[in-house]
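QA checklist item 7 of 12: single-chain prediction sanity check.
[x] sequence parsed
[x] length recorded as 172
[x] structure emitted
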Amino acid sequence: GNRLLPKFSLDATVFTKLCESWKKFLVLKLLGKRIGFLALRDKLKSQWKCSGGFDLMDVDNGYFLITFDFEDDKNKAIKDNIDTTLVWILFPNLGMVYYDDSVLLTIALAMGTPLRVDMNTANLVRGRFTRVCIEIDLTVLVGKFYLNGKWYNVEYEGLHILCASCGCYGHL
């Protein structure tokens, strides 16, 4: 072989033994906008209310590894996954005739709990798409809607890695 390009392979039993120590970790992936490390830690403490403590380690690309002092806390965190979030939804190519807060909030109600219409949309500053802030259930993403004889797509800002058709994460 080439000394400048060394190749290695591990025996399967060695690899299995290496993997054992990683089973104690919980992997967390953040979707959408990034949040600071300390803010995330505080949010998780508040959400999980663990009996013991936990350690949070940032890995990369929005991934975190978490270890818990108690297995029960880990199991509770797994069961207590966060299925809702606030997100801006976009309706590309929606005719500007529909740029009315009551109409947009009614349409957005089919995707989640609408909170407000973006100021640029409300003030007719932009015409390519509308933006509405909603609270959504991440397990039930609506991909399109039908309005007056035409289908319109729904885009979830910052959640492009979630498939609106099947709800799966990370496939194309």
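[x] summary fact logged: The longest helix spans residues 37-48.
[ ] second reviewer sign-off
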